[in-house]
Task: structure prediction
Amino acid sequence: MPLPLVAVTRRLPAACETRLDALFRVRWGDDATDYDAARMLALAEGADALLVSAGDPVPAAVIAKLPASVKVISTFSVGTDHIDIKAAKARGIYVGNTPGVLTDATADIALLLMLAAMRRAGEGERLVRAGKWTGWRPTQLMGTHLSGKTLGIVGLGRIGAATARRAKAFGMNIAYHSRRPVPEAETLQARYFANLDDMLPQVQVLSLHCPLTPETKGLVNARRLALLPKGAIVINTARGGSVIDEDLIAALTSGHIAAAGLDVYANEPNLHPGYLNLENAVLLPHLGSATTETRAAMGLRAIENISAVLAGNPPVYGV
Ligand code: DGY
Result:
């Protein structure tokens, strides 16, 4: 019996590639490919499993045409908004993801963005690199500090709670909005808001940690930005689709929102060009989980999901 065939859209950390090669026949995609439907289907031809990454689209139209041999779509990500899960379920194809192992890495990036946005680190770095720094001045690049400010978290799941723990260490107060109160909120002394609109006027920093769903699409819009106090900061390490870019860009331009720290964007990697010239936008290229440790752990989870399904079980981390 030949080993099962796994089609993999992207190159993976070395430990994951070695493991895949030991367990399966592997058809490797590459990092330069833009996976439209035709390319995804060509890669999946005859495969038993498809291993995709965040941002590789697997819409219903692709799922409908996947060969019957494909039993599982395993994504190298915790987010699953790039896969039509309903369509996969309807075809009896399992979907697995990688929860739990990118919590700390992503929370670190949320704090990094918060600090960078509030202390104007991007502007300062550009000033130095451009050779335009004329020396220490009492009024130069003044930002605000985290301590004493209230952080409003949207979605107090694993990553939201890890971000809140870090923010508390910086002396911040925590407020949160999620569908229901979360037990962990007690140890964080976090104030619950059932209604997001009621939380916004109370927070100086808003940080998104919610999955992209029909309910959270376009959540941060002009009306909600106006509810934040003047000078508030917006941080997004979740999904770009939860923010209406034009509205955030307008608020950053008017100064109502003092700064934004963004790691994710609608239509990555083609972010809205309006961000690029804004000094008060700190822009990272979706680095949330990008540590050596985390990426290896994500890959191993994605492989575990495939092994489980090809052994006749549901994925270990099923969606
Ligand atoms: C995920 O896993 O969904 C992340 O966005 C990738 O860092």
In short: The CA atoms of residues 305 and 316 lie 5 Å apart. The longest strand covers residues 257-262. The first helix runs from residue 14 to 23. The chain has a mean pLDDT of 98.
